[in-house]
Amino acid sequence: MVRAALGPGGALARGPKRLARFVPASSVVAASTLSLLPIVTEVGWVPDFGFLLLLAWRLLRGDAIPSWWAAPLGLANDLLTGGPIGLSVAIWSGAMLALDLLDRRTMWRDYWVEWGLAALLLLVNEVARWRIDALMRAPHDLAVVWPPLIISILVFPLAAWAASALDRWRLGR
Amino acid sequence: MAPPTGARPGWSRRAQYGLFFGFLATIAGLLIGLFLLGLSLVAPQAYAGVRSAALDTTAPITGGLREATTTVSGLFSGAGNYWDAARQNAQLKDERARLNRQILQARAILNENRQLKAALQLRERTPAAVATGRIVGSSFESQRRFAVISAGTGDGVRVGMPVRAADGLVGRVVDAGATASRVLLISDRSNIVPARLLRGGQAVISTGRGDGTIDLRPLEVGRNPFRRGDVVVTSGTGGLYSPAIPIARVVRLDDDGAIALPLADPSNVSFALVEQPYEATALAAPAEPEVER
Fold first, then answer.
1. What's the predicted TM-score (pTM) here?
2. DSSP secondary-structure letter at B166?
3. Predicted ipTM?
4. pLDDT, tens digit (0-9, with 9 covering 90-100), for B233-259
5. Residue B182's beta-bridge partner residues?
6. Interfacial B residues in 73-132 facing A (CB < 8 Å)
7. Nearest to residue A99, comparing CAs of A50, A133, A56?
8. Residue B273, strand partner residues
């Protein structure tokens, strides 16, 4: 055995990080925190980063974030973004359940299937938000849903890349 | 062959129970979420405490970042100003001379106005400013238009107070934390402001469209009263906003109304002024100024 393999960064010293279990969930909270950036805009077309990263983690690995963690993560997202409290709790838990059920139905998985599933859930998210906005006395046209939806579908591969990079880092691969 | 991605815990009873209870907990999370959402639809004031606490925790982060970005962009625009100083100086001198002449005119008009009002014995009130705050953030992830300002109940801000900037109306306070508060912008779909056309004084209603523009409708059905470039100001109806605060400028006409751009662009306004409601009783019903639609 070469002595170098035992040093820091050597082949044998690699392994999961100490808090590897909590890296996915805390990265989702960090993504929700992006909504605190001091950007003042007149249009709300920026994607919902927390939900994107949650979907990316869930589609990458079934066990990275336990399904029931979606509820507290969603609550954190609601409080950080200032949205109606309970909306992300419900949608994120529902998305986890839907993906759990879909896992048993899909025959094969590849990038396109995952992107399609993510796009479907992002659509559900945007339309649910639109409905809730209407119930909160802000009835927009349905047309306002499309630009943020398209942007977040196009941003999803970036979230998937971020999740897989974090996954490799936390597992020390 | 790749291992199945579905839940196959094997023979371990502990792992099986873990999965099962995780599943139940997710369903419970979904139900709790729906319950919380229902509560925030029917009784949004139930969350006032937790929302303002979250606002107090998060606003300093946004404020600090905002400070840093304005400093950096200020360095660049400051350098740009030096570069062009001579020409700008001449331009500004011209403008100052022009404005001085206008001020003289305005002073004469003001005098006359005061005399006329005294003759009519109109009671004049100027609403007192409660606090000033910087606009530090906005809801750029949702279709609703909210902004966060760095003034809260500690400065005397209460929910429902109107917020304006030097250029025009910004909106009204919907959540007030101790050091920060959230403002419903006039471009939000649910913000309805009773307004009046500056030219002619016809009563109109301004509603946000959620995309940074404002929808203007005349109160009386008839000929479309708008022209491009028209300015609308608050009418003071409803008692929340004091009269004659500029709201928006018309940029496009449609069949029975017009689309307008807010005069106070929250992304350029650095300071927002929180004011007392025009009528003290308007705070008692902070949700909507009364408007016949």
1. 0.83
2. S
3. 0.84
4. 999 888 889 888 999 999 999 888 899
5. B148, B175
6. none
7. A56
8. B132, B164
